[in-house]
Specification:
With about 375 residues, this protein is of the alpha/beta class. Helices cover about 35% and strands about 20% of the residues. The chain contains 13 helices and 13 strands. The strands form 3 sheets. Strands 5-6-7-8-9-10-11 form a 7-stranded parallel β-sheet. Helix 5 crosses helix 6 and helix 9 packs parallel to helix 11.
Length: about 375
């Protein structure tokens, strides 16, 4: 495929409600979209970096810079570029996985649109609908939390994930269990908020029969997670620690986790995400698809990934209205606790130009 250039587009979309985690509060989602253009088709990718380096070292302005100055120029020298060549070509640039993932997805989407192949088929999907979970941020009060969970259950979500941090953990989980019972699939996400010395405290979550506790310790502390896994009955799931298939294999070998959250942006793209899936399946480790408040572009690709056979737990594949009053693509609507896997070529959705222009704050064209 001969690319003629890339468009970078920074957008700002207000959230329907503030989303609070252990590392901060978001009220507006600033996102970077990447459009790859060829003579045959164009493709879209979404960079999941935040506007500040809180979840990871990446942030939107840095992504724009590294894509413009390094990543796209490197790809310009590749004859007959296809998506499988993106990661090897960009490997010499350290880190910046979210930026690389956005570029790779844009190229992959254009390639698949040109050949008429859906992303789900390319990745190896086996389902046409995926189960939907929802992530519930840290609230100001337990009654507010219970009202939010009640609303999501009424909307049909089949799994609830509670964000936790020291001081907001045991009692919120207890309240949700007491209010909604043991049949609700419930898990918690710490986003690295705890330390090894918190093991005894975190063990107080064991009686609540949680699906998992996600990333309780620092992302580099695999040994600490292995020790914690031995001390708790609640399964440990790793998120920020899993940056590649090799990292997943290492974590599994160390018994640092028994479940893996796969976020394509965090691992450098959907092709590496598929490799992580394959490693986990080979070791009988269940996986699920995490979310980063994606627009319809990233959400469509995530739903395609979540339809692979190893994704046996509901992911953070919520409907568009969970975060946005209106999306830049046709909205994803939860029905009976599931979302449909897009069937069109590539990621299967296309941004609405008027909606996209309304939220765009910056564009840049990089010719090849």
């Amino acid at each position: 495929m001969k690319l003629t250039g890339f468009e970078l587009r920074v957008i700002e979309m207000p959230l329907v409600a503030p989303f609070r985690t252990s590392f901060g509060v978001e009220t507006t989602r600033e996102a970077l979209l990447v459009r790859a253009v060829s003579d045959e088709a164009e493709g879209w990718g979404e960079c999941v970096a935040m506007n500040e380096p809180l979840y990871s070292s990446e942030y939107v302005a840095a992504s724009v810079d590294v894509i413009t100055r390094f990543l796209v120029p490197a790809l310009a020298g590749v004859p007959d570029l296809d998506a499988s060549a993106v990661a090897p070509t960009l490997e010499r640039f350290k880190g910046h996985r979210m930026s690389k993932a956005a570029v790779e997805l844009a190229v992959l989407d254009a390639e698949l649109r040109a050949s008429g192949v859906p992303l789900s088929r390319e990745l190896g999907a086996v389902r046409d609908r995926v189960d939907c979970g929802v992530s519930v941020g840290i609230m100001d009060s337990i009654p507010e939390l219970l009202d939010a969970v009640d609303g999501y259950l009424d909307e049909g979500y089949v799994r609830i994930k509670l964000k936790i941090e020291p001081g907001w953990d045991i009692e919120p989980v207890r309240a949700v269990r007491e209010r909604f019972g043991d049949d609700v699939l419930l898990q918690v996400d710490a986003n690295t908020a705890y330390r090894r010395g918190d093991a005894r405290h975190l063990a107080r979550l064991d009686p609540f029969d949680l699906l998992l506790i996600e990333q309780p310790l620092d992302e580099e502390d695999l040994l600490g997670h292995a020790q914690l896994a031995a001390a708790l009955t609640t399964p440990i799931c790793l998120d920020e620690s899993i940056v590649s298939a090799r990292a997943a294999a290492d974590a599994i070998a160390l018994d640092a986790c028994s479940i893996v959250n796969i976020k394509p942006g965090r691992v450098g793209g959907y092709l590496e995400a598929r490799r992580i899936h394959d490693v986990c399946v080979a070791h009988d480790i269940p996986v699920w698809c995490g979310g980063m408040l994606e627009t319809g572009i990233g959400r469509a690709a995530n739903v395609a990934l979540a339809a692979l056979p190893g994704f046996t737990l509901p992911g953070d594949t919520s409907g568009s209205n969970r975060y946005y009053s209106s999306d830049i693509t046709d909205p994803f609507v939860v029905e009976d606790g599931t979302l449909p896997v897009p069937t069109g070529p590539g990621i299967g959705v296309t941004p609405d130009r008027d909606a996209l222009d309304a939220v765009t704050v910056r564009t840049e064209w990089i010719a090849l």
